[in-house]
Amino acid sequence: MSDGPKLTCIVDNAVQSSSRLWGEHGLAFLIETKSGQVLFDTGQSGAVLLHNLAVLGIDPAAIDALAISHAHYDHTGGLPALLERARPGLPFYAHPDLFRERFARRGERPEFIGLPLAREALEAQTALHLSAEPQQILPGVWTTGEVASRREPEGRSVHHLVREGMGWVPDPYQDDMSLVVEVGSGLFLLCGCCHAGLLNTLSRVQRVFERPIVAIAGGTHLASASTDHLQHVSQTLLETASLRRVYPNHCSGEVAFHALLLALGSDIVRPCPAGTGLDF
Ligand SMILES: [Fe+2]
Ligand SMILES: [Fe+2]
């Protein structure tokens, strides 16, 4: 991996043992290439994001671009604190539906779980690049664009809602995107929560980028997947001959992690707590 991009998990629900990193229900990755550094998601809180960046020796002001997988608080909560320290006009990549308000059914009333900053605040502090199409962030680093074709099950939660008229409807997760990083022998797929569905996201990447996927990391939202679906996901990954690493973390769920581990083996399936340097 000497000359290729370097990928590090900055925030996750778990941390590497005996590290000084902090954990929380959230996710962030850093991609370092010869052309610059891209932060993918910001975790749930500025406190954890800034602490972990500091422990890992990463200066927020040196980050060249930010990409956001989707609006949920556990991926965007660190945004305000990051932007206070990031360079003005930081390039910001996301799907146009990012600004739709998101809610979760918790108790009596749906609770807001979306973006912590208004669009106007982001427009003032960043250079917004919003598109449902794939966007190049740096050479070799792309957003997947919208995962519109969803023939396989999505990574849904029955609690996730958006407003429609006077009522509530299930969140369509239209904003959900992943990142693709070119590594020597193929593509590294970095997922946020994969609400669009891991297999739908994989299909999109295979169709759009036409290169083999050699590694996957991030939230795969399989925590409530049925046994049948876990078997189907495992089988599909097993049949993806190019795949050499799978790092399920965040919302993947322990049952899914062990199902994948059993199917694909420990050479391929690895844990991915905060602090993990991803190899491929
Ligand atoms: Fe989410
Ligand atoms: Fe999440």
Quick overview of this protein structure:
Strand 14 (about 185-190), helix 5 and strand 15 (about 215-220) form a beta-alpha-beta unit.
Question: What does this molecule look like?
Answer:
This protein has seven helices and 17 strands. The protein is α/β, with parallel strands linked by helices. The protein has a seven-stranded mixed beta sheet with strand order 8-5-4-3-2-1-17. Helix 1 packs across helix 3 and helix 6 (227-239) packs across helix 7. The protein is globular. The mean pLDDT is 97. It binds fe (ii) ion (2 copies). One fe (ii) ion binds at residues 70, 72, 193, 195.
- Small molecules bound: fe (ii) ion
Radius of gyration: 17 Å
**Strands in their spatial order, largest beta sheet:** 8-5-4-3-2-1-17
Distance between the termini: 7 Å
Low-pLDDT regions = none
What's the total number of strands? 17
Write the layout of secondary structure elements.
Layout (H helix, E strand, L loop, with lengths): L5 E6 L16 E6 L2 E5 L5 H10 L9 E3 L5 H4 L2 H7 L4 E5 L8 E3 L4 E3 L6 H7 E5 L5 E3 L2 E3 L16 E5 L2 E4 L8 E5 L2 E6 L6 H12 L3 E7 L7 H13 L5 E5 L4 H11 L12 E2 L2
Parallel strand pairs: 3-4, 4-5, 5-8, 14-15, 15-16
Antiparallel strand pairs: 1-2, 1-17, 2-3, 6-7, 6-11, 9-10, 10-13, 11-12, 13-14
Helix pairs in contact: 1-3, 6-7
Bound molecules: fe (ii) ion (2 copies).
